[in-house]
């Protein structure tokens, strides 16, 4: 997991996502060919489509090749929301 942290932070900062949106990403929500992330049921309970910058896209591709994972695995527990 520690090898995925730089990619997680790059997505958070580069795409302006919330922590809960990044940890909730699923493989099918990431389209690296077109450079689009799909955020399912965002704050307004609608899907959002987020473009990836070239640098974030390259980081994601590099992470996939090194780790053979993209969406950030977590134990099988209910997702948590960050505290305000």
From TrEMBL:
Highest taxon, organism lineage: Bacteria
Pfam short name (any one): Phage_integrase
Q: Does the keyword Cell inner membrane apply?
A: no
Is-annotated flag, keyword tRNA processing? no
The UniProt GO MF terms for this protein read: DNA binding
**Keyword terms:** DNA recombination
| Every Tyr recombinase domain range | 1-84
Q: Write the protein's name.
A: Tyrosine recombinase XerD
Organism from which the protein derives = Blautia luti
Gene (name only): xerD_5
């Amino acid at each position: 997991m520690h090898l995925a942290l730089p990619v997680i932070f790059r997505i958070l900062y580069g795409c302006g996502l919330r922590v809960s949106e990044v940890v909730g990403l699923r493989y099918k929500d990431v389209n690296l060919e077109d450079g689009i992330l799909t955020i399912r049921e965002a704050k307004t309970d609608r899907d959002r489509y987020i473009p990836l910058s070239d640098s974030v896209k390259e980081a994601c591709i590099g992470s996939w090749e090194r780790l053979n994972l993209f969406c950030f695995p977590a134990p099988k527990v209910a997702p948590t929301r960050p505290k305000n």
